[in-house]
């Protein structure tokens, strides 16, 4: 058949509408016939090699099928891990002091995900066994939180964030979500938790998020993001991350913060503001600006 811009597709556990087709020269095309290699933009997430791509007529039906496949995949992984756990039951009984730290890992790329997963597993020792229950690419979803509840795991997001439904579900069910953008910080944090270290350390604490509505140009500060604060508050000189499609694309600092025409120290939820980001010009409407501060905390296992 012929693949066209606007077609609804399902590919393995992902779905979406074709927003753009690129040929092998990375030129934009409107349709691709049989035996034509193309890059497809518009799917909900990263597909796996070997996934079959099918055209659908109903986007809602495609989404439901993709969600069912994701659920079955997660359940099969959990069941497989449970079988392994049962097989090793007598070995575990020999060493009742061993504790399991179960982790669900989501990252922005497959390569990073695999590297982090292997690094975490290598941290296991005689007292604490690190078990990656599930690892995948893309935003943290509601099904990830459900799996965390079922397996009593913590959730780690590397350069990705939880979507709004997943975030609310995690808060209601008291599921821990930890965000990182530096592998060393993540490994250090997990190692500290494993060894029960309680001395103070510094950690990024998310204090708020703002959604970019418009982008303005300033002769003094360059690109200024006209924003609505949708959660918490944004503070002057806070560390920020620019999030696009649930993926962190830039990390930096707030350079200017204005409320109407006046400088502001902080802007609270539901209020509008203008945010200038130091050394970053590629801000776009729809981006999320996440603000955080460095805070001294104590880790307690």
Question: Could you describe the 3D structure shown?
Answer:
With 301 residues, the protein is an alpha+beta fold. It has helices at 59-87, 89-94, 110-121, 142-151, 164-173, 183-195, and strands at residues 3-4, 8-11, 14-22, 28-29, 31-32, 39-43, 53-56, 99-107, 128-137, 154-158, 177-180, 200-218, 222-235, 239-244, 247-259, 262-263, 266-268, 272-277, 288-298. α3 links the parallel β8 (99-107) and β9. α4 (142-151) packs parallel to α5 (164-173).
Q: How do the SSEs run, as a string of H and E?
A: EEEEEEEHHEHEHEHEHEEEEEEEE
Task: Summarize the biggest pleated sheet.
Answer: 6 strands, antiparallel, barrel
Nearest-integer average pLDDT: 84
Alpha-carbon Rg, integer: 22 Å
Number of helices: 6
- Spatial strand arrangement across the major sheet: 12-13-18-15-14-19
Helix content: 25-40%
Shape: globular
Strand-residue proportion:
35-45%
Instruction: Pick out the low-confidence regions.
Output: 81-97
Report the oligomer: single chain
* Total strands: 19
- Secondary structure category: alpha+beta
Termini Cα gap: 57 Å
Fold blueprint:
Layout lengths: L2 E2 L3 E4 L2 E9 L5 E2 L1 E2 L6 E5 L9 E4 L2 H29 L1 H6 L4 E9 L2 H12 L6 E10 L4 H10 L2 E5 L5 H10 L3 E4 L2 H13 L4 E19 L3 E14 L3 E6 L2 E13 L2 E2 L2 E3 L3 E6 L10 E11 L3
Parallel strand pairs: 8-9, 8-10, 10-11
Antiparallel strand pairs: 1-5, 2-3, 2-7, 3-4, 3-6, 12-13, 12-19, 13-17, 13-18, 14-15, 14-19, 15-16, 15-18
Helix pairs in contact: 1-4, 4-5
Please tag this protein with its features:
single chain; 301 residues; alpha+beta; 6-stranded antiparallel barrel; 19 strands; 43% strand; globular
